[in-house]
Amino acid sequence: MKELKVEDLMTTDVVYVEVPGSRRDVLKLMRERGVTGMPVVKKGTKKLIGMVTRTDLVSKPSEDQVALIMSRDPITVSPGDSVLKAAKLLLENNIRRLPVVEGEDLVGIITVADIVYKALADSAITDPISEYMERKMLAVWEGTPLPVVLSIMKMAKAQAVLVLDNKSELCGIITDADLVKLSEVVLKEKVSSSGIVSEGQEWDWDVSTMIYISKGELSLPDKPVSEVMTRRLITALEFTPINECAKRMRRHDIDQLPVVNSDGKVVGMVYDYALLRRLLKEPL
């Protein structure tokens, strides 16, 4: 297989926001295009000047201007750079996306999912995922209130939590993306219950939006995690090949898989970014 280049996998239809611009502009694009982060360019040009993500919005709830919310001097790659270089940068900097530039101009974006879904899934790599899984797992009881689940995830810096029933059996999973979607529903209910909803108001976002911000934190209803968790678990075995694991992630559009043993007991988790480490061991 020829060495894959960034241009082979990158997305050229890039969702970006301009400066000057506002928080509302970012949130509108996030909702319309289903993304959680995007490049920032100078108005009227494609000159890249920053990146703005869901994390930036939460960490700077009092700022409204994109220029004050975004992260400056983003790490970038060029179309001709190798996918291996992109994977290294993603892993070393603990980020999920890299803007692709030619000179100073934005021409694309490459993400962890791009590499896993488009390269690893279609590769001949059959190493078992056991070497790349995490054996330390985070779990909560199915009756745990959502705000507590969120606090646990933040303390552990986890993007997914397994859910156990009263018999300590695995019964579901919940991710940070699930909580984001739920908090959007909370906002809609809040708007709708006001009794003063004008036409199109549900599309009119302010600082409280798809990541309903209250003093910089997600605000969630006080209901048990069992009511919103995903019950149909997509799993893998310790000896499942990397390419098959990547295929399952692509098929179900997910970032992680619980790993089970031959008895069906959960023994770990494998995340999409962990699979990138395989590229550093031996490039495609």
Instruction: Examine the coordinates and then state which fold CATH places here, giving the name of the CATH topology of the largest domain.
Output: CBS-domain
List how many beta strands DSSP finds.
14
Unreliably modeled segments: 185-218
* Helix-and-strand structural type: alpha/beta
Layout of helices and strands:
Elements: H1 6-9, E1 17-19, H2 23-33, E2 37-42, E3 48-53, H3 54-59, H4 66-69, E4 71-72, H5 83-92, E5 97-102, E6 105-111, H6 112-120, E7 139-141, H7 146-156, E8 160-164, E9 170-175, H8 176-192, E10 213-214, E11 217-218, E12 236-237, H9 242-252, E13 256-260, E14 266-271, H10 272-275, H11 277-281
Give a description of the structure.
The chain is 32% helix and 21% strand. A hairpin with a 5-residue loop joins strand 13 and strand 14. The model is unreliable at 185-218 (pLDDT under 50). The chain folds into two domains: 6-120, CBS-domain; 129-278, CBS-domain, CATH 3.10.580. It contains eleven helices and 14 strands. Strands 1-2-3-4 form a four-stranded mixed beta sheet. It has a three-stranded mixed beta sheet with strand order 7-8-9. A three-stranded mixed beta sheet has the order 12-13-14. The radius of gyration is 20 Å and the shape is flat. It has 284 residues and is α/β, with parallel strands linked by helices.
